[in-house]
Amino acid sequence: MKIIGRTLIAAVLILFATGALAADKAQIARGKYLVEVGSCNDCHTPKIFGPQGMKLDESRRMSGSPAGAPMPPVDKKALTPGYWVMFSPDLTAAVGPWGMTYSANLTPDEKTGIGLWTEDNFVKALKTGKHMGEGRQIMPPMPWEFVGQMTEEDLKAIFAYLKTLPPVSNAVTQPIAPADVK
User: What is the pTM of this model?
Assistant: First the structure.
Protein backbone atom coordinates (compact mmCIF):
# COMPACT_ATOMS: atom_id res chain seq x y z
CA MET A 1 0.00 0.00 0.00
CA LYS A 2 2.84 2.42 0.85
CA ILE A 3 4.48 1.73 -2.52
CA ILE A 4 1.26 2.46 -4.41
CA GLY A 5 0.76 5.70 -2.44
CA ARG A 6 4.31 6.84 -3.07
CA THR A 7 4.06 5.91 -6.75
CA LEU A 8 0.81 7.83 -7.07
CA ILE A 9 2.30 10.89 -5.36
CA ALA A 10 5.39 10.71 -7.60
CA ALA A 11 3.19 10.43 -10.70
CA VAL A 12 1.13 13.47 -9.66
CA LEU A 13 4.29 15.49 -8.99
CA ILE A 14 5.73 14.55 -12.39
CA LEU A 15 2.49 15.52 -14.14
CA PHE A 16 2.38 18.80 -12.24
CA ALA A 17 6.03 19.58 -13.05
CA THR A 18 5.51 18.70 -16.74
CA GLY A 19 2.47 20.98 -16.91
CA ALA A 20 4.38 23.77 -15.16
CA LEU A 21 7.27 23.41 -17.63
CA ALA A 22 4.87 23.64 -20.57
CA ALA A 23 3.29 26.75 -19.04
CA ASP A 24 6.75 28.25 -18.47
CA LYS A 25 7.72 27.56 -22.09
CA ALA A 26 4.51 29.18 -23.33
CA GLN A 27 5.05 32.20 -21.06
CA ILE A 28 8.66 32.58 -22.22
CA ALA A 29 7.63 32.28 -25.87
CA ARG A 30 4.99 34.96 -25.31
CA GLY A 31 7.59 37.20 -23.65
CA LYS A 32 10.00 36.76 -26.55
CA TYR A 33 7.24 37.61 -29.00
CA LEU A 34 6.31 40.77 -27.07
CA VAL A 35 9.95 41.90 -26.84
CA GLU A 36 10.41 41.42 -30.58
CA VAL A 37 7.18 43.05 -31.79
CA GLY A 38 7.59 45.81 -29.21
CA SER A 39 10.99 46.63 -30.77
CA CYS A 40 12.73 46.48 -27.38
CA ASN A 41 15.95 45.43 -29.14
CA ASP A 42 16.04 48.74 -31.03
CA CYS A 43 17.22 50.54 -27.90
CA HIS A 44 18.36 47.79 -25.52
CA THR A 45 20.64 45.81 -27.88
CA PRO A 46 23.94 47.21 -29.19
CA LYS A 47 24.40 47.05 -32.96
CA ILE A 48 27.07 45.84 -35.34
CA PHE A 49 27.69 47.90 -38.45
CA GLY A 50 28.55 46.30 -41.78
CA PRO A 51 28.02 46.69 -45.52
CA GLN A 52 24.29 45.97 -45.10
CA GLY A 53 23.91 48.58 -42.35
CA MET A 54 23.06 47.96 -38.68
CA LYS A 55 22.18 44.61 -37.23
CA LEU A 56 21.71 43.43 -33.66
CA ASP A 57 24.79 42.24 -31.80
CA GLU A 58 23.37 38.87 -30.75
CA SER A 59 26.22 38.34 -28.26
CA ARG A 60 24.99 41.39 -26.32
CA ARG A 61 21.21 41.03 -26.79
CA MET A 62 19.28 43.31 -24.40
CA SER A 63 22.48 44.34 -22.56
CA GLY A 64 21.83 48.07 -22.90
CA SER A 65 24.04 50.93 -23.90
CA PRO A 66 27.67 49.75 -24.01
CA ALA A 67 29.61 51.12 -21.04
CA GLY A 68 32.50 53.32 -22.09
CA ALA A 69 31.50 53.43 -25.76
CA PRO A 70 32.70 56.65 -27.40
CA MET A 71 29.89 59.11 -28.03
CA PRO A 72 29.83 61.72 -30.77
CA PRO A 73 29.75 65.37 -29.72
CA VAL A 74 26.39 66.51 -28.38
CA ASP A 75 24.60 69.39 -30.07
CA LYS A 76 23.46 71.39 -27.02
CA LYS A 77 20.38 72.51 -28.99
CA ALA A 78 19.04 68.97 -28.44
CA LEU A 79 18.60 69.92 -24.77
CA THR A 80 16.14 72.64 -25.74
CA PRO A 81 12.46 71.67 -25.50
CA GLY A 82 10.91 71.52 -28.96
CA TYR A 83 14.22 70.87 -30.72
CA TRP A 84 15.32 67.56 -32.17
CA VAL A 85 16.12 64.56 -29.98
CA MET A 86 19.47 62.91 -30.79
CA PHE A 87 20.41 59.23 -30.56
CA SER A 88 23.81 57.56 -30.39
CA PRO A 89 24.90 55.79 -33.58
CA ASP A 90 23.63 52.41 -32.30
CA LEU A 91 20.40 53.87 -30.83
CA THR A 92 21.24 52.81 -27.22
CA ALA A 93 21.64 56.36 -25.85
CA ALA A 94 19.58 59.51 -26.34
CA VAL A 95 19.85 63.27 -25.69
CA GLY A 96 16.85 65.53 -25.24
CA PRO A 97 15.40 68.16 -22.91
CA TRP A 98 15.59 65.60 -20.07
CA GLY A 99 19.39 65.29 -20.44
CA MET A 100 21.23 62.21 -21.65
CA THR A 101 20.00 58.68 -21.05
CA TYR A 102 21.34 55.23 -21.74
CA SER A 103 19.26 52.12 -22.32
CA ALA A 104 19.28 49.68 -19.41
CA ASN A 105 20.89 46.26 -19.27
CA LEU A 106 17.93 43.88 -19.21
CA THR A 107 19.93 40.65 -19.11
CA PRO A 108 19.90 38.53 -15.95
CA ASP A 109 23.39 39.66 -14.91
CA GLU A 110 23.21 40.01 -11.11
CA LYS A 111 25.54 43.00 -10.83
CA THR A 112 24.66 45.12 -13.87
CA GLY A 113 21.34 43.79 -15.16
CA ILE A 114 18.04 42.55 -13.76
CA GLY A 115 19.44 39.35 -12.26
CA LEU A 116 18.44 40.31 -8.70
CA TRP A 117 15.08 41.79 -9.70
CA THR A 118 11.90 39.97 -8.83
CA GLU A 119 8.95 39.64 -11.14
CA ASP A 120 7.13 42.10 -8.86
CA ASN A 121 9.99 44.68 -9.17
CA PHE A 122 9.83 44.41 -12.94
CA VAL A 123 6.06 44.74 -13.24
CA LYS A 124 5.96 47.60 -10.73
CA ALA A 125 8.79 49.44 -12.53
CA LEU A 126 6.90 49.41 -15.82
CA LYS A 127 3.60 50.32 -14.18
CA THR A 128 5.00 53.22 -12.11
CA GLY A 129 7.91 54.48 -14.22
CA LYS A 130 10.26 54.04 -11.25
CA HIS A 131 13.48 51.97 -11.31
CA MET A 132 12.72 48.68 -9.50
CA GLY A 133 9.26 50.09 -8.86
CA GLU A 134 10.49 52.53 -6.20
CA GLY A 135 13.75 54.18 -7.27
CA ARG A 136 14.65 56.94 -9.67
CA GLN A 137 12.38 57.87 -12.56
CA ILE A 138 12.68 55.82 -15.76
CA MET A 139 13.81 58.42 -18.26
CA PRO A 140 12.87 59.12 -21.88
CA PRO A 141 12.88 57.83 -24.48
CA MET A 142 11.71 54.66 -22.67
CA PRO A 143 7.95 54.62 -23.32
CA TRP A 144 7.08 53.13 -19.92
CA GLU A 145 3.69 54.92 -19.93
CA PHE A 146 2.64 52.76 -22.89
CA VAL A 147 4.47 49.59 -21.90
CA GLY A 148 2.92 49.92 -18.44
CA GLN A 149 -0.53 49.60 -19.99
CA MET A 150 0.24 45.99 -20.93
CA THR A 151 -1.47 43.32 -18.88
CA GLU A 152 0.34 42.06 -15.82
CA GLU A 153 0.49 38.63 -17.51
CA ASP A 154 2.27 40.11 -20.54
CA LEU A 155 4.76 42.00 -18.36
CA LYS A 156 5.43 38.79 -16.42
CA ALA A 157 5.98 36.96 -19.72
CA ILE A 158 8.52 39.59 -20.80
CA PHE A 159 10.31 39.22 -17.48
CA ALA A 160 10.33 35.41 -17.81
CA TYR A 161 11.86 35.71 -21.30
CA LEU A 162 14.51 38.23 -20.20
CA LYS A 163 15.56 35.87 -17.40
CA THR A 164 16.37 33.19 -20.05
CA LEU A 165 18.89 35.38 -21.87
CA PRO A 166 22.60 34.92 -21.28
CA PRO A 167 23.77 37.38 -18.60
CA VAL A 168 25.97 40.15 -20.00
CA SER A 169 28.09 42.20 -17.61
CA ASN A 170 27.57 45.79 -18.74
CA ALA A 171 27.38 48.61 -16.20
CA VAL A 172 25.27 51.17 -18.06
CA THR A 173 25.96 54.86 -17.37
CA GLN A 174 23.35 56.56 -15.19
CA PRO A 175 21.24 59.39 -16.69
CA ILE A 176 22.92 62.78 -16.98
CA ALA A 177 21.02 65.97 -16.11
CA PRO A 178 20.78 68.61 -18.87
CA ALA A 179 23.22 70.99 -17.13
CA ASP A 180 25.85 68.21 -16.94
CA VAL A 181 25.68 67.00 -20.56
CA LYS A 182 29.03 67.67 -22.27
Answer: 0.84
